Amino acid sequence: MKERNPNVLQQGHTHPWIERLPMPAAGSMTEAQRAAAQALIDGPRKAVFGPFIPLLQSPVLMERIGSLGEYLRFDSPLDARVRELVTCAVARHVGNQFEWVVHAAAAVKAGVSAEAIEALRLGRRAAPLAQDEQLALDFAQELLQNNGVSEPTYAAVQSRFGKPAVVDLSALVGYFAMVCWVMNVAHTPVEPPQGQAGLDAFPL
After folding, report:
1. What is the SS3 string spanning the chain?
2. Distance CA 34, CA 11 (A)
3. Which fold has domain 80-186?
């Protein structure tokens, strides 16, 4: 049996643990899988990683999800701080190690305070945040908790960001919830950079 790498954060808490949908061996890939993987490598992501490892089991779906993610991550008019913070909120809500590790670092690099990201990791109120960051976080967390948002939250976000951005923000939450769920089911692990903390499960 392959020994567990102690530096890898396991996704999922079932025992015994196993990565359920690992990267297919190159020799076992179908033509559609090889084409989908190459398209991902040739695009802005430059590699097959994270959710695209289990999604490669369904290459047509992977390509379509990849196109949606490209827009939301790279082309959406939402500020990078807002996108990354909201993605962190989704990853924390669903307990996904991969998206947390990737986007916690990206959020800090984009300008979100490290203190706020660490507070979010621990399940506390994220602070300090800029006004637009707080509005977006309130929107995302309310949507995740309630499957919708209240009139005051909607009005505040529409006033600050505009109607098109409200749609992008809603879709961003849904997109990352979807890919997190795929990895949660697949048990897709991640090896974080040295010194970067992953997520601890909240007590039941």
Report:
1. CCCCCCCCECCCCCCCCCCCCCCCCHHHCCHHHHHHHHHHHHCCCCCCCCCHHHHCCCHHHHHHHHHHHHHHHHHCCCCHHHHHHHHHHHHHHHCCHHHHHHHHHHHHHHCCCHHHHHHHHCCCCCCCCCHHHHHHHHHHHHHHHHCCCCHHHHHHHHHHHCHHHHHHHHHHHHHHHHHHHHHHHHCCCECCCCCCCCCCCCCC
2. 25
3. AhpD-like (1.20.1290)
| Residue corresponding to tokens 């909201």 | 86
| CA–CA dist 60, 174 (Å, integer) | 19
Tens digit of pLDDT for each residue in 130-171?
A: 999 999 999 999 999 999 999 999 999 999 999 999 999 999
Question: What digits encode the pLDDT tens for the residues 96-121?
Answer: 999 999 999 999 999 999 999 999 99
Least Cα distance to 169 among 63, 64, 87, 61 occurs for: 87
CB 89 within 8 A of CB 145: no
Single-letter residue type at 181: W
